[in-house]
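Hello forum,

I keep getting stuck at the same step: I have a sequence, I want structure tokens, and every attempt I make locally crashes halfway through. Rather than fight my setup again tonight, could one of you with a working pipeline run this one for me? It's a single chain of 248 residues.
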Amino acid sequence: MSFMELRAWVYSSGQLAQALSCSDIGLVYAPSRLAENAAGNEERVVLLPPEYLADCEDDVRRGFTALREKGFTRALAHTTGHAELLKDCGYIVHGGNRLNCTNSETMRFFAECGVCDMIVSPELTVRRINALDKPIPTGFLAYGKLPLMLNRRCPISDGKPCGRPRCGRQLTDRKGNKLDVLCGENTVEILNSNVLVLSDRLADFRTDFAVLRFTTEDDITPVVTAYAHGRSIDLPDITRGLYYRGVM
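Reply #2:
Ran it on my machine without issues. Output:
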């Protein structure tokens, strides 16, 4: 059984409802567009702003200010620009993996900036994660189809994102692998075809929490149960990511 806090990163209202009803899940990361579905759970939800701010910063500031007034207190920073905006809006700021935290100096920098915890870069090995100085609670991405690329335009329609988070469309790479396309508010993620699974390896990590990133799943319960009890997950195409082999 895992003694590490499990957190869920969700993209749909159905996933959000399941995560909030699950006693094995602590905090839940959810896009701000789902805020209305989290009524009564404001303290438990970490709101996700759009990945890209350049064309919507003023709108994001107004939207997050309004959500703060409704009782939401936590939000995740994808960049240092997000961190400043969210602090200005009165949020407890959580650090996301796109902050690319790969060493102890970076951890100390963000701790001094007031970030309350950090999801480290998935490019780190488990050995390097364990060796980090951790002045703030630290976690890692432990499950899901991790993003290979973040685009401003949709690679399928060659236009701006359609706004439908799970449109169901895919790309096919040169090896025939199917890559899901996940639409954000103003960006599009191309996801790895293989699913990162570490449910039977959590004991290797000396961290405070593990993040289960749900994208195309309709039922998240079997995954959460496997992680809560340290059981393996029987999927045809899994990956351990870079945690055991590194970037090179």
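The chain has two domains: 5-144+195-239, 147-191. If your local run keeps crashing, start a new thread with the error log.
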